[in-house]
Q: What sequence folds into this?
């Protein structure tokens, strides 16, 4: 076991993912030092720690600049910081499976449990050390800015809150590692684990004012998410009952991670037999139909669309469409994001006809467009599936061998992916519009569909470019989730992002969130949405073509 741990430390030290993690923490620290006063997912009384939840930076409390404010500020970017260790953990576990070094170890008499136990201990220890160093740097920077010397009691409080956050992060990394082993796909694992904090935000932060009145199932679901514990720890809303809940969650999360990981490790042979049987059936089917097929040269668009339709992507999109429908029509009396902009417009995400102002037609449109909050999941599914399929099958090289240029292949594949994504969204929009009653005004419903389709297309084009630029589907999935979460956080934090900081205003305006919020409030922004969608799509496609030409020359 000690030798295995030493081997894992060497692997981690030479991994590129570690460098990206260090760079990510450095950028996050730079953001912290220059972001000014920030409010992340705040609910309750800001001045009373026991009556508020959320993430606070430089928030003056009832006694002015105090040690409690110092501790709160040092933990304020927890909501973003978990992304870096998550990606590092998922990348390390996925690399082991992708390189099949675990099979090599087993063939030499090693044990999978020892291998992945040592790997988790090494990666988790490195992640927690980096996170603790980040907390300490934030604590020191805030103390210098406030011009105060922390008392011993405040330092002990900082250590206790940091320890609680690190325990939650460690349990969360155990779940991420188990999902990576179980799904055998790092992009899917990162997507699943990224949904957990976002779900916690929707179930707890948004419902905080009436949380005790919610059904028991919803309360238990919210307390199963890590963001429930992070938001209370960072707000210093710590009570004896909360400490008991935290202890129970830690035991349950670690137990679930260990159980799911054990099941994933001891099912590989069955998975191989299933894959072998599927391959044999495909070969027999191809052999039977080879005589009837005639050689033809299909366009790159039709070939890419055919390849995508013969994956699990259509099934996943159908399932996601059902989830979007249940969210838009089933969630009642809940404004997921509700803000009033400086010009007086009320904007947000209002499912289930919960738009507090406007006509019945506005409420119906808002219900339909509330599914756009989950549209980023479809963007990730299409982009990740298409990129992974092209990467593993070598479609670009195969097309070049048959006389198809790389430029033509890039354009054709982008068109096919766009057609599949927009076709799914058009069907979903039509079904939701019919169910919500938005089709009573067909011209208005069609106008809002065009605008929302442009916004969705801009988000997809950006993720598509990031995947190709970084040569990693995980990079695209992370980018999409970060932009979505950043847009939601900034929109909830302050109606006017420019009042928070110039960086917040830049981040907010670059994300699709302000367009979704305006459309969800029943405000038509046809030219802004079309200009944003067309401009981002054109820029990303042009950059992708330049990148393809450069790599073709290489």
A:
């Amino acid at each position: 076991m000690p030798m295995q741990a030493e081997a894992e430390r060497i692997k981690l030290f030479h991994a590129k993912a570690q460098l990206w993690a260090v760079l990510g923490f450095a950028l996050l620290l730079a953001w912290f030092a220059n972001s000014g006063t920030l409010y992340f997912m705040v609910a309750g009384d800001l001045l009373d720690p026991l009556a508020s939840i959320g993430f606070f930076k430089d928030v003056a409390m009832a006694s002015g600049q105090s040690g409690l404010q110092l501790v709160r500020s040092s933990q304020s970017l927890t909501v973003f910081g978990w992304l870096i260790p998550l990606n590092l953990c998922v990348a390390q576990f996925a690399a082991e499976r992708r390189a099949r070094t675990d099979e090599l170890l087993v063939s030499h008499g090693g044990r999978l449990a020892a291998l992945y136990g040592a790997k988790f201990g090494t990666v988790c220890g490195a992640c927690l050390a980096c996170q603790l160093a980040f907390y300490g740097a934030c604590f020191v920077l805030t103390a210098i800015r406030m011009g105060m010397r922390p008392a011993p009691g405040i330092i002990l409080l900082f250590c206790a809150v940091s320890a609680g956050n690190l325990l939650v992060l460690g349990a969360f990394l155990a779940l991420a590692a188990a999902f990576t082993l179980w799904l055998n796909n790092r992009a899917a694992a990162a997507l699943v684990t990224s949904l957990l904090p976002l779900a916690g935000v929707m179930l707890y932060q948004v419902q905080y004012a009436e949380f005790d009145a919610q059904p028991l199932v919803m309360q238990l679901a919210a307390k199963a998410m890590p963001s429930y514990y992070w938001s209370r720890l960072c707000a210093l809303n710590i009570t004896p009952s909360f400490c008991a809940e935290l202890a129970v969650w830690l035991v349950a999360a670690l137990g679930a991670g260990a159980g799911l990981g054990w099941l994933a490790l001891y099912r590989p042979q069955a998975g191989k037999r299933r894959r072998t049987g599927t391959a044999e059936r495909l070969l027999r089917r191809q052999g039977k139909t080879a005589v009837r097929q005639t050689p033809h040269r299909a366009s790159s668009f039709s070939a890419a669309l055919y390849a995508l339709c013969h994956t699990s992507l259509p099934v996943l999109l159908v399932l996601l469409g059902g989830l979007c429908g249940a969210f838009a029509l089933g969630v009642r009396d809940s404004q997921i994001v509700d803000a009033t902009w400086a010009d007086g417009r009320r904007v947000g995400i209002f499912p289930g006809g919960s738009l507090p102002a406007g006509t019945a037609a506005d409420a119906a449109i808002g219900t339909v467009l509330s599914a756009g909050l989950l549209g980023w999941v479809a963007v990730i599914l299409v982009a990740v599936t298409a990129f992974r399929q092209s990467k593993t099958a070598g479609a670009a090289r195969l097309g070049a061998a048959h006389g198809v240029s790389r430029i033509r292949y890039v354009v054709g594949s982008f068109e096919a992916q766009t057609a599949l994504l927009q076709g799914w969204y058009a069907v979903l929009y039509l079904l939701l519009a019919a169910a919500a009653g938005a089709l009573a005004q067909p011209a208005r419903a069609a106008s809002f569909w065009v605008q929302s389709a442009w916004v969705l297309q801009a988000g997809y084009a950006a993720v598509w470019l990031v995947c190709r630029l970084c040569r990693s589907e995980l990079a695209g999935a992370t980018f999409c989730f970060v932009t979505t979460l950043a847009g939601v956080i900034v929109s909830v934090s302050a109606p006017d992002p420019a009042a928070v900081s110039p960086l917040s205003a830049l981040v907010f305006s670059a994300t699709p969130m302000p367009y979704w919020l305006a459309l969800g409030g029943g405000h038509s922004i046809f030219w802004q949405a079309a200009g944003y969608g067309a401009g981002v799509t054109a820029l990303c496609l042009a950059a992708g073509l330049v990148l393809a030409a450069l790599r073709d020359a290489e």
Q: What stands out?
A: Residues 112-146 form the longest helix (35 residues). Residues 269-283, 285-297 have pLDDT under 50 and may be disordered. Residues 364 and 438 are 5 Å apart (CA to CA).
